[in-house]
């Protein structure tokens, strides 16, 4: 009877550790604007709900606290992997906004980015906020909880081991972060390249003209004009990226259990 009660308690603790760590790192839930106490309370409530459908972990009291600490660390690592994986798209979009802001000439206009918790130029912070709104609109926070719940079936409690498949997926999606940033910023690269070519031709034809002095406000105006013109396309692209990454997150969770 004692072993049964101990196993039930340990099962609940391990469920809570994985879920709490994942929520503390994941988008929206992991934002430092949200106090720690409500986040932990939310993790506690969801853990209690999941407890009745998650396979129990058989733990014997004679295994000791050291083994329990090892199990808790393993579950924390699984939660970190799941939570951090969801941030890949947000980091890519923030980097894309940073590139566009640099090309536009807004390198000195910095703002606090609540997504990355770092100072970024205003476009990078705006891209992160827009991605957060779209993430909530498509119920990405629901899918995140579903992915965590699926991880208990695909990677049962106490069975996590690092493997080559998980490492390969992490490397691939990390590289995809930069690919996403360059793809989003590509139209701006092309437009500013043509603008610089035109400025070079004007400088050759009219040497007396201060081209670089005139070029900066033109670049800012062109950058904002492109943002306004491409905003529907950017919103659609961000939504597709987030929806497609839901499948990628499932692959990562599946790789955890291999």
Low-confidence stretches: none
Q: How many domains, as an integer?
A: 1
What is the count of DSSP helices, taking H or I runs of 4+ residues?
Answer: 8
| Spatial ordering of strands, largest sheet | 1-2
Distance between the termini: 33 Å
Tell me the β content.
under 5%
Annotation, overall tally of beta strands: 2
Q: How confident is the prediction overall: mean pLDDT? A: 75
Radius of gyration: 23 Å
Q: Roughly what percent helix?
A: over 70%
Structure at a glance:
This protein has 258 residues and is mainly alpha-helical.
Model description:
With 258 residues, this protein is mostly helical. It has one domain (2-256). Helices cover 77% and strands 3% of the residues. It contains 8 helices and 2 strands, in the order H-H-H-H-E-E-H-H-H-H. The protein has helices at 2-25, 36-51, 64-85, 88-104, 122-137, 140-154, 164-205, 211-256, and strands at 110-113, 118-121. Strands 1-2 form a two-stranded antiparallel ribbon. Strand 1 (110-113) and strand 2 (118-121) form a beta hairpin. Helix 1 (2-25) crosses helix 2, helix 3 packs across helix 8 and helix 6 runs parallel beside helix 8. The longest helix is centred in the C-terminal third of the chain and has 46 residues, at 211-256.
């Amino acid at each position: 009877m004692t072993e049964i009660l101990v196993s039930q308690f340990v099962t609940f603790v391990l469920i809570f550790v994985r879920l709490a760590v994942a929520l503390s790192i994941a988008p929206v839930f992991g934002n430092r604007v949200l106090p720690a106490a409500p986040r932990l309370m939310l993790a506690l409530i969801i853990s209690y709900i999941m407890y009745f459908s998650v396979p129990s972990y058989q733990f014997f009291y004679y295994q000791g606290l050291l083994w329990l600490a090892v199990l808790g660390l393993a579950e924390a690592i699984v939660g970190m992997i799941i939570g951090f994986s969801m941030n890949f798209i947000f980091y890519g979009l923030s980097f894309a906004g940073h590139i566009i802001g640099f090309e536009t000439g807004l390198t000195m206009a910095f703002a606090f980015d609540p997504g990355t918790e770092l100072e970024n130029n205003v476009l990078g912070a705006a891209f992160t906020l827009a991605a957060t709104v779209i993430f909530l609109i498509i119920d990405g926070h629901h899918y995140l909880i579903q992915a965590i719940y699926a991880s208990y079936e695909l990677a049962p409690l106490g069975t996590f081991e690092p493997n080559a498949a998980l490492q390969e997926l992490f490397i691939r999606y990390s590289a995809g972060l930069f690919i996403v940033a360059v793809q989003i910023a590509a139209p701006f690269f092309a437009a500013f390249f043509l603008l610089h070519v035109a400025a070079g031709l004007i400088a050759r034809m009219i040497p007396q003209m201060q081209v670089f002095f005139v070029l900066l406000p033109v670049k800012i105006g062109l950058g904002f004009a492109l943002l306004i013109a491409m905003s529907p396309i950017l919103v659609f692209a961000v939504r597709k990226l987030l929806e497609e990454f839901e499948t990628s997150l499932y692959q990562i969770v599946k790789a955890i259990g291999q």
